[in-house]
């Protein structure tokens, strides 16, 4: 089979970033998801964020479980290594990958079935270990790929496409992430690219466990009246606590803001998160207050979005394990093999 | 009363203790003294699944002839656990001996008149000498070692030297322990007929061999194999492998200047996560392993299949034990062969390495990582409790400093820049093994998407039948390549020509050696083939073809190796006679010899060996 390179169509409007890449260089193959699926918007936001960050695509590894959402890594960052693993187990595969090479950026993509049902344990443990990653759950309240069964994030009282009621309590992934020690926690909506892109950028620059719960309606199975994960419902009930503007380096703020309305958070890599407060008394650094605030909103059927919590000096798994600075996968024989003399000593001690 | 046993350097001593009473170090000391006197000895721990207060046993087989397998039966019993007294008393061979704590008088019904009973008032002596309750307990253990030193005629200088070595670094403990030992020894010399009929005499039969546990050896193999990532979940009898890896790494893998670690060990939340982490790390170019036992292998099935199809290097140490969670977790068996060889769904087959002793645990432990990288697939190292958790005399470990890790077929940025074509699942060399790239290698070349079976040679998504078949037949080619890379079987021919053969593997080795010796003594000759790996080398089929009858000796109920021989080599089941031992205790020479003799119809033999 002869290999035909895809002709590069150069749209004059396609601007290059600092690396000389256009937005198109961050795309993957053509999506096979349903037209209008929320997941495709999240892929687009990931592409946009990486392009704007001038990220070298090959320095990012994308991993996923199984589901429509978990298929999406094929549809973005075609120059990145990807791993479509098994259902609910992406967190362990990502953890292992991260242990092998701490120098890459890890993007874990999952669904609500993948992470809140079969994979709840692995989700929880990856978060509590502080794996340096961005973990995105594309949350539609159903199992899209197996055709519309309720998932564990479906709200109690919400109705299936076929009119069945969900009576089980929902699992709130954001509440879990907060409780388990994630150091960057956000919630967003696939229909709000303005909000989502900077949240992804901030998370990719975060050197710890970053989690984004992104509500992402399933147009095939969960976009009807009676669903709490439909486009209409989420548009009506979502309320952002803040608006985020991501700056790769600290620079001067031009516009005037009312006293206390703007907060700047500097991350480890020097990037700055400019947070414009929409909920006046919301403190993005107070984990416990955040949990209370979110529960209150939740009880009223409202969906709080935005950057919900950030720790600007997080620690990650490698820090806990005290591993060497460089990637473990680059260590060679001289670093790793103690040699014959050491073995002779070992023998001598066992005679 | 039968004549008291009279044996030099050839008997079995068994200690019955209460778990958690601190007896382990005294018992280990006893075993070491024998070795230092140049006499081969094999200790075995027999312990139930609990931590404190329940019975444990420590059995030492002393054999100048060098038989390291379990013998069965006890010649000298040291029953330090009142709870198991009756059972322990009953286990002694007629003419045997019992050394016990005579502080509290016991009714005559508690004894047997066909054994020699030797009482030492251990508790009384300890209570007189020490006030602290913990000391009373611990020194009692050393004291019975002292009494044994007198009874068995041990070299007292050796005992003293070993006590000093045991407490090296804790100097304060050396003197009181030596004193306690002498207290026991002196009392015995004064009050008992020392030495008894069982005696130790210095010989030179240990050579340069070392004494080590298989789990520790395998973990050291992982260090020498270049493993940097270990993910595990605690389960007996495999936990001590991961723990040994931790301590070996602390010793060998901490950077001297920065104090940073050249390894990462994660205790995962379960076995699914352990193997997931290993696969993630292997995918990303680190050498990674997990250690587990049968229940863990069951949980890992889906992931093992993914690693097989996605062609990701992984090493799995399976320290086999009997049955599921509530089975016989602390008993030995070779019962995971089939579940490991064909682990997962879809058509899968895996490479198994079958070490016979700690030496091979070390060798195969290191080699497994080269094989995993070379073959880009999971490699199982099949230990069992008998070699994993017991110290065993074995050849010293060797390493060639010129040896380098074989990282297999990995394309570098330079390779990609030179224009070499890259297709993740392309069989460029005809050996079924494709090339891979590590993530992050090159800005524009060599990236690929990893998934299970829905892919073509360039790792592009496809559900087409021909692409699937192409991939599956290539995987079979790769499995054929594996046959040439794994450790080859070892054939040994009998002293006389024979049409009888025997196949065995793993921890059965020492019992088999002894059984063959006994059988030959009775005129039953067998050629043997010791399997060291799956898939089978062509010699295995040839060996079966060259014999009329082949005994397959293994430690499981269903003849799992026999099944593999039948299905993978197409050998006529009628030819393969199973010899199966599966009560949870290690297989014995007696069992093997008797079973083979019976099946081979050698009638007078049965009496002779019993
Ligand atoms: C072990 C296992 N069980 C079941 C399945 C079938 N399965 C595939 S995707 C899926 C649910 C996916 O739901 P979610 O993660 O919410 O993804 P979505 O399709 O909604 O994006 C299930 C149950 C599987 N692939 N593997
Ligand atoms: S089924 Fe639902 S989740 Fe899956 S692609 Fe279609 S819309 Fe998206
Ligand atoms: Mg879903």
The top-level CATH class of the largest domain in chain B is Alpha Beta
**Main beta sheet of chain B:** 7 strands, mixed
| Count of beta strands of chain A | 13
Q: Any idea what the CATH superfamily of the largest domain in chain B is called?
A: Pyruvate-ferredoxin oxidoreductase, PFOR, domain III
Task: Provide the spatial order of strands within the biggest beta sheet of chain A.
Answer: 2-1-3-4-8-7-13-9
H/E series of chain A = HEHEHEHHEEEHEHEHEEEEHEHHH
Structural class assignment of chain A: alpha/beta
Radius of gyration of chain B, CA atoms, in whole angstroms:
27 Å
Percent of residues in helices of chain A: 25-40%
Short note summarizing the structure:
The complex is a heterodimer of chains A (about 350) and B (about 600). Chain A is α/β, with parallel strands linked by helices.
Describe the fold and architecture.
- The complex is a heterodimer of chains A (351) and B (610).
- Chain A is 29% helix and 19% strand.
- Chain A has 351 residues and is an alpha/beta fold.
- Chain A has one domain: 3-Layer(aba) Sandwich (Rossmann fold), CATH 3.40.50.
- Chain A has an eight-stranded mixed β-sheet, sandwiched between helices. In chain A, strands 10-12-11 form a three-stranded antiparallel β-sheet. Chain A has a two-stranded antiparallel sheet with strand order 5-6.
- Chain B is built from 21 helices and 23 strands.
- With 610 residues, chain B is α/β, with parallel strands linked by helices.
- Chain B starts with 6 loop residues before the first strand and ends with a helix.
- In chain B, the strands form five sheets. In chain B, strands 11-10-12-13-15-14-21 form a seven-stranded mixed β-sheet, with helices on both faces. In chain B, strands 3-4-2-5-6-7 form a six-stranded mixed β-sheet.
- Classes of the chains: A alpha/beta (351), B alpha/beta (610).
- Strand 2 of chain A pairs parallel with strand 17 (449-450) of chain B.
- Magnesium ion binds at residues 67, 111-113, 140, 142-144, 151 of chain A.
């Amino acid at each position: 089979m002869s290999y035909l390179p895809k002709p590069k169509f150069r749209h004059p409007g396609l601007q290059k970033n600092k690396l000389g890449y256009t937005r198109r260089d961050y795309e993957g193959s053509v999506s096979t998801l349903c037209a209008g699926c929320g997941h495709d918007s999240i892929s687009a936001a990931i592409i946009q964020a990486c392009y704007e960050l001038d990220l070298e695509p090959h320095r990012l590894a994308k991993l996923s479980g199984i589901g429509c959402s978990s298929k999406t890594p094929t549809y973005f960052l075609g120059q990145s290594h990807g791993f479509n693993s098994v259902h609910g187990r992406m967190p362990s595969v990502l953890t292992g990958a991260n242990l092998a090479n701490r120098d890459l950026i890890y993007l874990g993509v999952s669904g609500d079935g993948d992470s809140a049902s079969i994979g709840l344990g692995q989700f929880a443990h990856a978060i509590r270990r502080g794996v340096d990653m961005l973990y995105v759950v594309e949350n539609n309240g159903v199992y899209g790929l197996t055709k519309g069964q309720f998932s564990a994030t479906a709200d109690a009282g919400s109705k299936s496409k076929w009119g069945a009621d969900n009576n089980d309590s929902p699992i709130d992934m954001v509440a879990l992430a907060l409780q388990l020690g994630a150091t960057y926690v956000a919630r967003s909506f696939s229909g709000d690219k303005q909000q989502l892109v900077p949240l992804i950028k901030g998370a990719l620059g975060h050197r710890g466990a970053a989690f984004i719960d992104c509500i992402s309606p399933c147009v095939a199975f969960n976009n009807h009246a009676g669903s709490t994960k439909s486009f209409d419902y989420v548009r009506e009930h979502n309320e952002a606590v803040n608006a985020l503007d991501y700056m790769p380096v600290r620079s001067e703020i031009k516009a005037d803001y009312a006293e206390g309305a703007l907060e700047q958070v500097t991350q480890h890599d020097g990037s700055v998160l400019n947070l414009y407060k929409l909920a006046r008394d919301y403190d993005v650094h107070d984990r416990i207050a955040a949990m209370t605030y979110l529960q209150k909103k939740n009880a009223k059927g409202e969906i709080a979005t935005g950057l919900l919590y950030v720790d600007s000096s997080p620690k990650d798994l490698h820090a806990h394990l005290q591993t060497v600075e460089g990637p473990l996968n680059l260590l060679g024989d001289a670093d790793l093999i103690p040699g014959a003399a050491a073995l002779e000593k070992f023998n001598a001690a066992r005679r | 009363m039968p004549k008291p046993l009279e044996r030099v350097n050839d008997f079995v001593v068994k200690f019955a203790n209460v778990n958690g009473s601190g007896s382990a170090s005294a018992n280990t000391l006893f075993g070491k003294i024998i070795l230092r006197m140049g006499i081969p000895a094999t200790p075995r721990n027999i312990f139930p699944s609990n931590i404190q207060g329940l019975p444990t046993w420590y059995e030492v087989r002393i054999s100048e002839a060098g038989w390291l397998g379990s013998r069965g039966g006890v010649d000298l019993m040291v029953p330090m656990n009142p709870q198991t007294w009756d059972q322990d008393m009953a286990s002694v061979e007629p003419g045997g001996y019992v050394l016990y704590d005579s502080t509290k008088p016991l009714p005559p019904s508690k004894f047997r008149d066909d054994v020699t009973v030797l009482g030492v008032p251990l508790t009384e002596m300890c209570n007189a000498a020490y006030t602290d309750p913990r000391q009373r307990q611990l020194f009692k253990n050393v004291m019975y070692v002292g009494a044994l030193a007198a009874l068995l005629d041990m070299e007292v200088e050796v005992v003293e030297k070993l006590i000093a070595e045991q407490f090296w670094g804790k100097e304060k403990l050396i003197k009181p322990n030596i004193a306690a030992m002498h207290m026991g020894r002196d009392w015995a010399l004064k009050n008992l007929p020392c030495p008894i009929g069982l005696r130790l005499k210095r010989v030179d039969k240990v050579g340069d061999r070392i004494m080590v546990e298989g789990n520790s050896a395998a973990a050291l193999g992982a260090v020498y194999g270049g493993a940097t990532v270990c993910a595990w979940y605690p389960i007996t009898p495999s936990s001590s492998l991961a723990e040994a890896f931790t301590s070996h790494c602390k010793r060998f893998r901490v950077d001297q200047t920065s104090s940073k670690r050249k390894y990462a060990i994660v205790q995962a939340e379960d076995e699914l996560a352990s193997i997931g982490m290993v696969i993630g790390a292997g995918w990303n170019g680190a050498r990674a392993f997990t250690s587990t036992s049968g229940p863990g292998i069951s949980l890992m099935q889906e992931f093992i299949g993914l690693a097989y199809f996605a062609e990701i290097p992984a090493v799995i140490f399976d320290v086999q034990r009997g049955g599921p969670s509530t089975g016989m977790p602390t008993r030995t068996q070779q019962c995971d062969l089939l579940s490991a060889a064909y682990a997962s769904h879809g058509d899968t087959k895996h490479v198994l390495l079958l070490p016979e002793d700690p030496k091979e645990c070390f060798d195969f432990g290191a080699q497994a990582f080269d094989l995993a990288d070379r073959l880009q697939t999971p490699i199982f190292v099949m230990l069992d409790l008998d070699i994993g958790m017991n110290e065993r005399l074995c050849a010293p470990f060797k390493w060639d400093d010129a040896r380098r890790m074989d990282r297999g077929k990995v394309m570098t940025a330079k390779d990609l820049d030179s224009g070499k074509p890259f297709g993740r699942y392309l069989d460029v060399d005809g050996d079924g093994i494709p090339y891979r790239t590590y993530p992050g290698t090159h800005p524009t070349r060599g990236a690929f998407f990893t998934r299970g079976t829905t892919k073509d040679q360039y790792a592009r998504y496809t559900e087409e039948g021909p692409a699937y078949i192409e991939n599956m037949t290539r995987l079979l080619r790769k499995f054929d390549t594996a046959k040439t890379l794994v450790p080859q079987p070892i054939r040994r021919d009998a002293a006389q020509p024979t049409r009888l053969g025997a196949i065995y593997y793993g921890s059965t080795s020492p019992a088999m050696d002894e059984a063959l010796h006994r059988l030959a003594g009775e005129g039953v000759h067998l050629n043997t083939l010791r399997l060291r790996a799956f898939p089978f080398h062509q010699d295995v089929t040839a060996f079966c073809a060259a014999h009329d009858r082949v005994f397959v000796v293994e430690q499981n109920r269903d003849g799992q190796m026999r099944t593999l021989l039948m299905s993978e080599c197409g050998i006529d089941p009628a030819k393969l006679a199973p010899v199966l031992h599966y009560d949870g205790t290690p297989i014995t020479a007696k069992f093997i010899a008797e079973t083979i003799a019976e099946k081979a119809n050698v009638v007078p033999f049965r009496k002779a060996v019993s």
